[in-house]
Structures are given as structure tokens and as C-alpha cells.
């Protein structure tokens, strides 16, 4: 009921078309149920005519007028049957496609409302599987299986009504056998549904693993881990195969059992019906119609049994999709303040305490203040908390206590959208999407004109390179974004940040994996972007932050030193050791910096 109720939520806006489809389906199945009865009338009259002719009854012969009348009624029935079938399919297709469109839109909106912590704990591939494979399973079930299921239920119902209309005693014989079919179907469904649930989850995890391995294909080749990756994939694939076999096999057992029970019912009806004909209690035409109704009962039962696998897969997919939609979203305090259109850029951390697990705090008491226009460098060993500090500033995570202020305003008192529009970020892992270079840079400001994009590219020292490419700014970035170099991608993301014209800039310094010439170009571009703006730089090469107004030295989630480059060197503390380790031939064993 949970899944049906949630699906109805998406179908309800199109309920007029839905009920139109159901009405058309009812008309279609009524027309289908009348077919054997109409044929039975003709067969009965022909049988009577043959008997009269065999007994040499005067004037005996085929009653063509009656047969013609029956054929006209049959033709009218056909018009209703095929016309309602077309309308029903047309309306239902509209309902399903519009409902699935709305569902996908909600999933897309949900992704943007989930906290970063959710994506840190879930496989990207599994999330993609929910948004693609699982939604497709629901769509296919609604589009194909649902109408067949409705047809089956209505077909059985109308066939049973007609059987009682023709000969109620004979109908009871079949009705007594039907509960056995229901019992068998319910038992098999109970056994197979958990297997289908496990199959959906296993498929999602396999999809996630494959996506992860493909995205890291180069690293797998470099470290010679192809065989290990293949072995893990084979193991997970075998697990999926075993689970899939179990689910499909149990579900497939339903059809032979249904056919066996149906044939027993057919045999019982045929034997009892013959005795009724011999006794004169049933005409030959009605017996033929009754036998046709037995098929109209058995065929939907077999069809429904064949659909159980698809329907169960759709139910499992629905649970995964709706569980995703029910995930807790980013929490919002009441918006009680607003930031000005342009902020000065004063940033203050005041006694900030934070832990991914509140019982195990990573940061215990972070306090510092940045004046407008200053450049702050954040340094420290791997895992010291540098990226976490930035995540808290952007409100990707919520602090446990304390306050973070921008121009004196607590960032928890403003909306996240309003807060983040004042920030620009250039990450070490440059991200470009499949589109032209022009549109990738324009991502920083979707309203920007082409000449604004080109000006931003010039400031980022990438305009000349772009003009040397085929089609220049209209060159298409491929899906993997590997048709340009890493350094050029980084310059384009800097151009994107220039175009967004942020009040506060965050730079995850990304010059460690490029050559000296590109490093110089990137550093020059970064200096231009930082000019006049409050900037936070996550520093990997300490030689690039000598001129920072404030350097925060972090270790184990806390700030252990802060000051300028010269003052920290003079203090001969942890920063001095880090700095000297990058220029000495031998690095102390207890220091692990990110290079």
C-alpha cells in the first residue's frame, strides 16, 4: 500500500485521464466478455437448424437472418473493443509519462537538497542506479504491466459473471478451484519478494562499483590493479547472478502451477458441462461459450503469473526510489537576517566546534578573524581538517556549536543560497561538463554575454590557448573532459570564477600536477582573481603562500599556529618544520604534507 499510495501521488494530477483510461479498459473488457456469449447464440441456432434438418422438419434450414443479426452485433462489439483499447492505451501512456517526468524532476530537485554528508556515505553509482534503472523499472511496470494486470483482473471478473449468467451451478465448480490459485500465488510471492529486493540493492552496488572503476581507470592501469578489479567485479556479478536466479526461479514457478490448476478447472467444467448438455439443462452454444470463459479466466491468471517478476522488480525499485526521496534534507534554521548585495568580506570563526560524529569532535575550539580583502592560507598535514574548515564556511556541514560570521552576520541565520552566491570556488579537481568551452566558462554567470566570457578567459590566461583549438570557444568538451590538458581545465575553472565575480574566493591550489610554465600561468591567474577579495587558499606548496596576510596551521582538526609567513618561520614551530621539509633533501619521517 505504501508504494501504491506514493505512486498515486504522482498520478493524481492526471486523474481525469487515468479514470478515462480505466473506463475505456472496462468497456474493452466488457466487450471481450460478450464475445463468447454472442458466438454461443449463433452456434446454438446453427445446432438447432442442423437438428431440424436431420429430422426433416418442414421448412428447416439455416437461419441466415438470425446469423446476420448476430454478426452485426458482433461487429458493433468489435468497434467498442478496439476503440476503447486505443483510447485506454492513449490516456494511460499520457498519465504514466507525465507521472514519471514529475518523479524524475523530484529526484533531480532532491539531489540539490541533500547534504554533502549523504554523498560522502553513498556510492555515486548506486544513486545513479536509483535515478535511472529503478525509475525505468517503475515506468515499464506502469506502462505495460499495470494495464495488463487491470485487464487480467477485469477479464476474470467479467468472465465469472458471465459464467454465473449462463449456468450458475457449473460456475461454482470453477469458482471453487480459483482459491487454490490465489493461495499458490500468494505463497510464491511471499517467497520471491525478498529475493527481488536483494536483487535491486545488489544491482545498485554493482553499478556503483563499475562507475567507480571506470572513473579511476587510469589509476588502475598505473598500479596494475586490473586483475584485482576484474576479480571483484566477477565476484559481485556472480553474487548478482545467484540472487537474480533465485528471484527469477521462484517467481517463474508460479506459471506452471497456475497452468496445472487452470487445466484441472477446464477438465472439471468440460466433464460436468457435457452431462448438463445431455440432461438438456445447457445448450451446446452456451457450453462452448462457457468453455471460452474458462480460457478467459485461465489466460489472465497465467498472464498475471508471468508479470509477477516485472511487478516485484518494480516494487523493489519503488522502495529504493521513495527511500531516496525520503532522505533527510539539509536542515535550515529560520531565516532571520539577510546579507547585502555585496559583502565586504570580513569572516570570523568564533569558538567553532564540529565533528562528523558529534560524540567525537574533530574541531574543538576554532577561532580566528579575517579582515576584508585579506588572503588566508590554510596549511597542514593530510587529514588535518583544511577541507573541513572550508566546508563549514560554505555550510556544506553544520557546526555543533559556536558561530561563523560574515560581515558580523551569523551564516546560520541566512539561507544557504544567499550565502553561497557570495562565494566562488576553484577546486583542485577541475570539473567541466559536456558542452562547449564557452558554456563551461559561462557556468559562473549564466547571464553573461560572450564578450564577458572572453574577458574572463583573458584574465585567467587561457584565451590564447582556447583560440588555438578547433572551433575555439565553440569546441565541445567530451564526456570525460580529457580532450584538453589538466592545466588548461584548471585555467578554465579560474575563468569561471572570474566571471562569477565573487565577494569571497576559495582556492584549492592546483599547481602541483602541472609543469613549471603552466604553474606560473595558473599562479598569475589566481593572483588576478584574488586581488581585492577575501580569499581562502588551501595550500599544498608552501612556497606559493609567502605573501598571505594570515596563515592558519592545522593539525588533528585544530589550529595550532597562526600568523604571517615570516612570523611563523621565526617561531620555529610546526609550520617552520613543514616549510623546511619541502626544501630539504630529506623529509622528517613524522611529517606528511600534501604535494
Question: What does it look like?
Answer:
Residues 347-581 form the ABC transporter domain. Residues 19-313 form the ABC transmembrane type-1 domain. Keywords: ATP-binding, Membrane, Nucleotide-binding, Transmembrane, Transmembrane helix. The structure is a single chain. This protein is of the alpha/beta class and 595 residues long. It is 63% helix and 9% strand. It contains 19 helices and 10 strands. The chain has helices at 2-11, 15-54, 64-113, 116-121, 124-166, 168-215, 217-222, 226-252, 254-278, 284-325, 386-393, 416-420, 437-442, 450-459, 463-467, 486-500, 516-530, 565-571, 574-581; strands at 347-354, 363-370, 375-379, 401-406, 409-410, 423-426, 504-508, 534-538, 550-555, 558-563. The longest helix has 50 residues, at 64-113. The protein is elongated and about 130 Å long.
Gap between N and C termini, in Å? 55 Å
Query: Which topology of the domain at 2-325 does CATH recognise?
Result: ABC transporter transmembrane region fold
CATH architecture of the domain at 2-325: Up-down Bundle
Order of helices and strands: HHHHHHHHHHEEEHEEHEHHHHEHEEEHH
Main sheet attributes: strand count, strand direction, barrel closure: 6 strands, mixed
How would you state the average pLDDT, rounded? 82
Anisotropy-based shape: elongated
User: What proportion strand?
Assistant: 5-15%
Q: Could you tell me the number of beta strands?
A: 10
Oligomerization state: single chain
Amino acid at each position: 500500500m505504501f508504494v501504491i499510495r506514493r505512486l498515486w501521488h504522482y498520478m493524481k494530477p492526471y486523474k481525469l485521464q487515468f479514470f478515462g483510461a480505466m473506463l475505456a479498459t472496462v468497456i474493452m473488457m466488457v466487450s471481450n466478455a460478450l464475445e463468447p456469449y454472442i458466438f454461443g447464440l449463433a452456434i446454438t441456432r446453427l445446432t438447432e437448424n442442423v437438428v431440424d434438418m436431420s429430422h426433416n422438419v418442414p421448412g428447416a434450414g439455416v437461419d441466415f437472418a438470425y446469423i446476420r443479426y448476430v454478426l452485426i452485433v458482433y461487429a458493433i462489439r468489435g468497434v467498442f473493443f478496439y476503440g476503447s483499447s486505443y483510447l485506454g492505451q492513449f490516456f494511460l501512456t499520457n498519465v504514466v509519462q507525465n507521472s514519471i517526468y514529475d518523479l524524475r524532476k523530484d529526484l533531480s530537485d532532491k539531489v540539490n537538497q541533500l547534504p554533502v554528508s549523504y554523498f560522502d556515505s553513498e556510492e555515486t553509482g548506486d544513486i545513479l542506479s536509483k535515478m535511472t534503472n529503478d525509475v525505468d523499472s517503475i515506468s515499464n511496470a506502469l506502462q505495460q504491466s499495470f494495464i495488463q494486470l487491470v485487464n487480467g483482473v477485469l477479464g476474470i471478473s467479467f468472465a465469472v459473471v458471465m459464467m454465473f449468467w449462463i449456468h450458475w451451478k457449473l460456475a461454482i465448480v470453477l469458482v471453487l478451484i480459483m482459491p487454490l490459485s490465489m493461495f499458490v500465488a500468494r505463497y510464491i510471492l511471499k517467497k520471491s519478494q525478498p529475493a527481488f529486493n536483494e536483487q535491486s540493492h545488489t544491482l545498485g552496488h554493482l553499478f556503483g562499483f563499475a562507475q567507480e572503476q571506470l572513473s579511476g581507470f587510469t589509476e588502475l592501469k598505473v598500479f596494475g590493479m586490473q586483475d584485482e578489479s576484474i576479480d571483484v567485479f566477477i565476484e559481485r556479478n556472480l553474487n548478482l547472478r545467484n540472487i537474480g536466479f533465485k528471484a527469477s526461479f521462484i517467481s517463474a514457478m508460479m506459471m506452471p502451477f497456475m497452468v496445472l490448476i487452470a487445466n484441472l478447472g477446464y477438465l472439471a467444467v468440460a466433464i460436468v458441462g457435457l452431462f448438463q448438455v445431455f440432461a438438456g439443462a445447457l445448450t451446446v452454444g452456451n457450453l462452448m461459450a462457457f468453455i471460452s470463459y474458462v480460457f478467459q479466466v485461465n489466460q489472465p491468471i497465467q498472464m498475471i503469473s508471468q508479470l509477477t517478476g516485472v511487478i516485484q522488480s518494480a516494487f523493489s525499485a519503488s522502495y529504493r526510489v521513495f527511500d531516496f526521496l525520503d532522505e533527510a534534507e539539509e536542515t535550515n534554521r529560520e531565516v532571520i537576517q539577510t546579507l547585502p548585495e555585496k559583502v565586504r568580506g570580513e569572516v570570523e570563526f568564533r569558538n567553532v566546534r564540529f565533528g562528523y560524529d558529534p560524540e567525537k569532535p574533530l574541531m574543538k575550539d576554532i577561532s580566528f578573524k579575517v579582515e576584508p580583502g585579506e588572503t588566508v592560507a590554510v596549511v597542514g598535514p593530510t587529514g588535518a581538517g583544511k577541507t573541513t574548515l572550508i566546508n563549514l564556511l560554505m555550510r556544506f556541514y553544520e557546526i555543533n556549536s559556536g558561530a561563523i560570521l560574515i560581515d558580523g552576520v551569523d551564516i546560520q541565520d541566512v539561507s544557504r543560497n544567499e550565502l553561497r552566491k557570495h562565494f566562488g570556488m576553484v577546486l583542485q579537481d577541475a570539473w567541466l561538463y559536456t558542452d562547449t568551452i564557452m558554456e563551461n566558462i559561462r557556468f559562473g554567470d549564466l547571464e553573461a554575454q560572450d564578450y564577458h566570457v572572453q574577458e574572463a578567459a583573458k584574465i585567467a590566461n587561457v584565451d590564447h590557448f582556447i583560440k588555438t583549438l578547433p572551433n575555439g570557444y565553440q569546441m565541445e568538451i567530451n564526456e570525460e573532459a580529457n580532450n584538453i590538458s589538466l592545466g588548461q581545465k584548471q585555467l578554465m575553472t579560474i575563468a569561471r570564477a572570474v566571471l562569477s565575480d565573487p565577494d569571497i574566493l576559495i582556492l584549492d591550489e592546483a599547481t602541483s600536477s602541472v609543469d613549471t610554465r603552466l604553474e606560473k600561468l595558473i599562479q598569475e591567474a589566481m593572483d588576478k582573481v584574488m586581488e581585492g577579495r577575501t580569499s581562502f587558499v588551501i595550500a599544498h606548496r608552501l612556497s606559493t603562500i609567502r605573501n598571505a596576510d594570515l596563515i592558519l596551521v592545522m593539525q588533528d582538526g585544530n589550529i595550532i599556529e597562526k600568523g604571517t609567513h615570516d612570523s611563523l618561520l621565526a617561531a620555529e614551530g610546526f609550520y617552520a618544520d613543514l616549510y623546511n621539509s619541502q626544501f630539504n633533501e630529506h623529509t622528517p619521517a613524522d611529517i606528511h604534507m600534501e604535494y
